[in-house]
Protein: HTH-type transcriptional regulator / antitoxin HigA
Organism: Pedobacter westerhofensis
Amino acid sequence: MEKLKYTLIKNQKQYFDYCNALESLVDVKDKTVAIDDEIDLLSLLIEKYDEEHNNFDALDPISLLRSLMTDHHLTATALADMLQVSKGYVSDILNYKKGLSKDMIRKLAEYFKLRQDAFNRPYPLNNVMKQSLMNAG
């Protein structure tokens, strides 16, 4: 019996091996139909594992974003470029001073290959103006 090249992901080592294989395949310049099929299969297997093993609900969207930025070695400047906003705006988002727009949520979900609802959940913002007024009064 022929051994399958890919199977359902059963552990974290296999998960990371598949992620690395997917990354290598995505970087291939002249993709064939077979490579496209392999990319699709690996993507499905990785997404299934993510859905079963990653509890993104435990993190608020900004904590999740910070974690993903660390994992992907993404700087605030690179994030600002990707979201097409200023570095100051990204700083405000990362410091809970401003919320994520629908467009940003869509871009983040697409970039990190997650469902939009991972970023589209309520979280508390630091209301600097309100605190300043209360302290002045």
